[in-house]
Design a protein that fits this description.
The chain has two domains: 132 residues, Rossmann fold (3-Layer(aba) Sandwich), CATH 3.40.50.2300; 176 residues, Beta-Lactamase, CATH 3.30.450. Helix content is 52%, strand content 18%. Strand 4 and strand 5 form a beta hairpin. The longest helix is centred in the middle third of the chain and has 77 residues.
Length: 373
């Protein structure tokens, strides 16, 4: 079935070459190509594709067995038959080990040789079908690998997107949690002093013990110290004045300042370094509708630095602190915020408010009590 087989016949005896060519040509209209030496056979193997090679063992320029490796390399599916007038067990074994499908002794019977020829061609057809299946399998595996890599890249991208989405959701959830925690504290505050007390109380609970200073912006856009919580360093006028002139101004310009180690020496004045050398400093601007209403500075020993979570918590509470300041100090502005859904309405005038009879837990530091946390 299919195209006629192409057979290479290699023999140095013209009569045998003619006989073999005649027998082969009868088998399925096979096309016969003849060679009388190894050199001629090698050239033909490089130029043509063969289904079968019939090779004489003894050739003028060497043993026909030496042609078998080249045949396997160049045409893996081709079958080979070895013919020889000097039959030995060793030569037959070497021929079969070399890849030959049959070993025929001279002289041979034409009918028997034709039967062996059919078997050799059938062996070639089977090997060719196997090679075709392997080729299709290799192509399929190659295509599957390419598709697997493409799918893996898509899965990686999807996983990265999911990780990013979950990280953003976690960040937003944490921001809401922190803001609700702070809102719970400031909702109980009555007046500016209580807002400052509650804010420092919340900060200590959130980030741990540290020195805290809260500066408020006056109508003339000057900074004025509103509250200071001593942990290790007191509110020395020399220190607070120097911070007002440098660190706090820097925080208002940049929004947030984080200083430690070498950054302290390059960013602070000598008056500040006198007290703040070796500290980990976090300062942040608190603004409402683009206007700075105050600034918070926190510092403690650099051996217990503020964490990224601490910085994130302070970032999250600052807008609410600024809004609380606006409510307390600028009632009309706070009223606008309520109309925009940003918070409760304006704070009633001082004369309309009644003092709270309860003892506020946020005032523990003013009463000289131990921290309640």
């Amino acid at each position: 079935m299919g195209k006629p087989p192409v057979v290479l016949v290699v023999d140095d005896e013209p009569q045998v070459l003619e006989l073999l060519a005649d027998i082969v040509s009868r088998e399925g209209a096979a096309h016969v190509v003849c060679a009388d030496s190894m050199r001629a056979a090698r050239r033909l193997m490089n130029e043509h594709e063969f289904d079968l090679a019939i090779i004489d063992l003894a050739l003028p320029d060497g043993s026909g067995l030496n042609l078998l490796p080249q045949l396997r390399r160049s045409q893996p599916a081709a079958a080979a038959m070895i013919v020889s007038g000097q039959v030995s067990f060793q030569s037959a074994v070497e021929a079969l080990r070399g890849g030959a499908v049959d070993f025929v002794a001279k002289p041979f019977n034409a009918e028997d040789f034709q039967r062996r020829l059919r078997n050799a061609l059938a062996s070639h057809a089977l090997a060719e079908r196997r090679e075709q299946r392997l080729s299709r399998l290799r192509r399929s595996v190659k295509q599957l690998n390419a598709e697997r890599k493409t799918l893996a890249r898509k899965v990686d991208l999807l996983c990265n997107d999911l990780i990013g989405a979950y990280s953003e959701l976690a960040r937003q959830t944490e921001t809401v949690r922190v803001q609700e925690s702070y809102r719970h504290f400031t909702d109980r505050a009555d007046g500016l002093e209580q807002i400052l007390c509650h804010t420092m109380d919340w900060l200590l609970r959130q980030v741990g013990y540290c020195n805290i200073g809260i500066w408020l912006t006056t109508a003339e856009q000057e900074l004025q110290l509103g509250a200071f919580m001593k942990y290790t360093i007191a509110a020395n006028p020399e220190l607070t004045g120097a911070m007002q002139e440098n660190l706090l101004r820097m925080a208002i310009r940049r929004g947030l300042v984080r200083l430690r180690d070498a950054e302290l020496r390059s960013s602070l004045t000598s008056a500040e370094l006198k007290y703040l050398a070796g500290q980990d400093i976090l300062a942040i601007n608190c603004s409402y509708l683009g206007e700075s209403l105050g600034a918070i500075a926190m510092f403690r020993d650099a051996r217990t630095p503020f964490s990224n979570e601490d910085v994130g918590a302070v970032r999250s509470m600052c807008p609410l602190f600024a809004l609380a300041l606006a409510r307390a100090v600028r009632g009309s502005v706070a009223g606008e915020a309520a109309e925009n859904g940003e918070g409760p309405g304006p704070t009633p005038p001082a004369e309309d408010r009644r003092p709270h009879p309860r003892k506020d837990p946020a005032d523990w530091w003013k009463r000289g009590e131990e921290p309640p946390f």
